[in-house]
Amino acid sequence: MPPVCWKFIKLHENLAPWVPVVGLEIHAQITSNSKLFSGSQVQFAAPPNSLVSFFDASLPGTLPVLNRRCVEAAVMTGLALNCTINKKSLFDRKHYFYADLPAGYQITQQRVPIAVNGSLSYSLCIDNKMSQMVTKTVRIKQIQLEQDSGKSLHDDARSQTLVDLNRAGVGLMEVVMEPDMCCGEEAAAAVRELQLILQTLGSSQAIMAEGQLRVDANVSVHHPGEPYGVRTEVKNINSIRFLTKAVDYEIQRQIKELENGGTVVNETRAFDSKLGCTVPMRDKEGKQDYRFMPEPNLPPLILYDAKSLPANVNHQQVVNIDWIHERLPDLPSVKRAKLVELYGILPEHSFTLVNEDGLMEFFEDVVKRTQMKPKKVIGWILSDLLSHLKQHSLTANESPISSFLLADLLNLLENGDISSSAAKQVFEELWKGEGKTPLEIVKEKQLELIQDQEELEQICQAVIDEREKEVMAIKEGNKKVINKLIGLVRKATRGRANPLLVKQILEKKLSE
Amino acid sequence: MTPRNRFRWRVMRVLALCRWLRGGTVRALRLGAAAASSAPPSQDSVTVEVLDHLERLALVDFRDAEGVERLREAVRFAERLREVNTEGIEPLDSVLEDRCLYLREDDVTEGNCTAELLKNAREKVEEYFVAPPGNIPLPELEERDTFLKGS
User: Fold this and answer.
1) CA proximity to A460, closest of A512, A417, A422
2) Asn/Gln amidotransferase domain: from which residue to which, for each copy (chain A) (predicted)?
3) For the whole model, what pTM was predicted?
4) Helices (H) and strands (E) in chain A, counts
């Protein structure tokens, strides 16, 4: 029974609640030099049909030869997702006709895949506030190795399809998730976490925009206590944002359909990103019969561990699960926990640091170079830096302010040379990327804090003299008005006065 | 291929067909039902619907009664294997099961033969293969000119 999604209970309080059920099938392209069963190159955007071997084109007399790197990538991913690795797995043929599948079948692992029964933990924020994060888990049914198909370019004008086989035969890992999710947000969070894990492992770069990570969603709804409803499959989802939209749209569509007395058809639908809705896909001829059969050209794939490793065998021919396990890098969840422990920041902060490309390294760099406490640095990273990066669609690596420069600025602030409002001004200047150092900008714009006590007292006195009304109010007991005076002093000094010191001076003068 | 291997190959193919006819479960040689040693019901399984389905899926053409009978023969031939008691025995999926699956190093050794590959294409557009706009499904039984209509 999937967890009941809080969102939907809230939305449909007056009607019998619907329980949406979302399962995902994710195809991740394996990062390797050559393809799964042949020696042609794996590369994005190459001249059409230039990365195709005779086997990929399915010419007679060719045979598949398994790529060791692809096996290792699948084992790494299985281990990272807490799966049981099947020491013996089998390959099968899945038959269907399509122009971009020259053999007429795809070699996959339907019966006994390489990894089964894992889990993926992910976090999401309740109520859109970063303050409350909840951890959820989705079960991984299996991970299997399979071939990718080629690419079809539809030329409707000339009523033809152009086929490029560069992608045909590239290794894929299909990750099948159980239907434990209940809304678009959960699906998106799970996919994002999987993406981070794959990128950390290096088994896939998982860039959705380049088709390295493809997600199909299976969606259905039912009333609590009743059996699962009919499900539809949603394809053509090209980004994580679209995944949320597509799943939520489909859930609403099914609910509306059922509440109007209609039925949900077991079909495949495509997500139209321009219209923000799902539409039935035309080219599907009813329920497909794939006529699965064992791949006769490939014996079973045997993997070993430290115990079962045969004594006198060629190491190149052996994949050792334990060896791979020992060399797994820190997964995102471990990275986050370490950040919290090492720097004393909040879990929500560590989440953003790991989630944004390069931000964690940037933060750690700054912390190394500055005396400011990490808890204060994080504020600058997450509010000032990140908001600017997002505005200009830049990653941390592309930031016009390097970690050196930011650390310099924060040191000036920490040493008491400038006020925090002056620091923000310097930040804006630095963002222009004109090559000036923080110190140069401070001198240029004369933003140093006034250290001369007498000068400060003079300015404070001037403000007190000007503002009789406010002075009266304070003397009568309305203490809060002093903030207005502090503000005026700040304006008069153009942010160069230490607000605490100003408050002290004003209070002393007013009590005289 | 030696005659022995050719035999094995044919058995593999027909076993796969039998498995598919039984509903695609991996029980090729296992005795699930009591139908083990009784007369194999091949007459029942090779129906017009199945033949039409096969023609559509595999784009074969049974052409005439002889073609259909050949299929029935093959199914009968393979079903004789069910006379063997295979209780508690792992099914044979591959005659290569005692061989080691060779693992290749991840090096680029092939490709870059666009011109050669396109030599086989009847039509091409700027180094792309040309195909019809989508799958053209086989027409329904009633609309097809096929021997199966008569049965």
Assistant:
1) A512
2) 361-510
3) 0.81
4) 17, 17
| A101, two tokens | 């599948």
User: Residue A291: which of B20, B97, B103 has the nearest Cβ?
Assistant: B20
pLDDT of residue A53: 97
First vs last C-alpha separation in chain B:
38
* Chain B residues 31-50 with CB within 8 Å of chain A: none
Task: Please state, in angstroms and rounded to a whole number, the distance separating the CA atoms of residues A262 and A278.
Answer: 17
Q: What is the DSSP letter of A394?
A: -
Domain assignment present for residue B146? The answer is yes
pLDDT 10s digits, A4-32: 455 554 455 556 789 999 999 999 999 99
Closest chain A residue by Cα to residue B109:
A39
What's the gap in Å between the CA of A383 and the closest CA on chain B? 44
Neighbours of A308 (CB within 10 A): 12
Q: Is B133 on the interface with A (CB under 8 A)?
A: yes
**Strand pairing partners for A320?**
A304
Is residue B112 assigned to a domain?
no
- Which positions in chain A touch B58 (Cβ < 8 Å)? 95, 291
Question: How many pairs of residues across A and B have Cβ atoms under 8 Å apart?
Answer: 162
Domain that holds residue B3: 1-89+141-151
B134 inside domain: no
Which residue type sits at B54?
A: L
Percent of chain B exceeding pLDDT 90 equals: 26
State yes or no: pLDDT of A96 exceeds 60.
yes
**DSSP at B53:** H
Nearest CA in chain A to B104: A67
Q: Is the dihedral of CA A272, A101, A35, A187 positive or negative?
A: positive
Nearest-by-CA chain A residue for B123 = A162
Confidence of residue B64 (pLDDT cuts 50, 70, 90): confident
pLDDT of amino acid A230: 93
State how far the alpha carbon of A444 is from the alpha carbons of A426, A436, A439, B105, in Å. Answer: 10, 10, 9, 60
Best A30, A32, A34 member to test B by mutation, with max B CBs in 10 Å, is A34
**Most confidently modeled range among A65-74, B45-54, B55-64:** A65-74
Angle (CA) A359-A365-A369 rounded to 5° is 145
**A216 pLDDT exceeds 70?**
yes
Chain A partners of B8 at a C-beta cutoff of 8 Å? none
Q: What is the pLDDT of residue B1?
A: 58
Computed from CA positions of residues A298, A299, A305, A310, in that sequence, does the dihedral angle turn out positive or negative?
A: negative
- What is the tally of structural domains in chain B? 1
Q: Find the CB nearest B110 among A40, A289, A291.
A: A40
Residue A12 in tokens? 């449909």
Please name which of A115, A119, A117 lies closest in space to residue A87, comparing C-alpha atoms: A115
Q: How far apart are the first and last CA of chain A?
A: 73
Instruction: Give the residue with greater pLDDT, A207 vs B98.
Output: A207
Q: Measured in whole angstroms, how far is the alpha carbon of residue A476 from the centre of its chain?
A: 56
3-state class (DSSP) for residue A207? coil
Evaluate if residue A62 carries a pLDDT over 80: yes
Give pLDDT tens digits for B125-142: 999 999 988 777 788 888
Residue A384 CB partners (closer than 8 Å, separation 6+):
A424, A427
B108 found inside a domain: no
